[in-house]
Amino acid sequence: VIGIDASEDMLAVANEKKYDEDSSALFLCQKAEELDLFGTINCAVSSLDTFNHIDSIEKIEKAVSLVSLFMEMNGIFIFDMNTPHKHKKVLGNNTFVYDMDEVYCVWQNSYDESSERTDIDLDFFIKNEDNEDYERYSENFSEYVYDLDKITDIIKKCGFTLLGTLDDYNEYPPSETTERITFICKKTETIFKDELK
What we know:
Elements lengths: L1 E4 L2 H13 L5 E4 L11 E6 L10 H14 E12 L1 H8 L3 E5 L3 E10 L4 E11 L6 E11 L3 H10 L2 E8 L12 E8 L10
Parallel strand pairs: 1-2, 3-4
Antiparallel strand pairs: 4-10, 5-6, 6-7, 7-8, 9-10
Helix pairs in contact: 2-4
């Protein structure tokens, strides 16, 4: 198993868990659009709307083409994306508050239609173990909205056949109100390194 992430901090957490579980997984610090593996793979999974964090359709195409480059013929590629519906109608300019036993979270979103970007601000208030005080942690990032037909075109252009799409990770097909769509792809054509942009 090979894990890829652009964040050294996230990979440090993954490495801690890896040693706790006595796993042989290999973690590489890379951006999706700069994927560079040591050999071929027969399956790839990208979850939790990773591609929505990529800031251009050209970079998404580069990322998918690199997955194809390193994937064996008939290999499976599964990935998900937040839909335009979710960004415009669910996240939108809304604020969500989660009040749990150990964590209080405020999630604020700002959607800009002209750039088709959602800016997300998360504030976590986590209870200290030794008393009733809370410590505040903040995280800010953006997600980008992409036309799902363009994603389908990229899948085909990069040597994959789209086997199907799902509403999130269940057995139902996507609908107009689907918030996360899962793409299931199979490598059916060879892509060569000199064909990549």
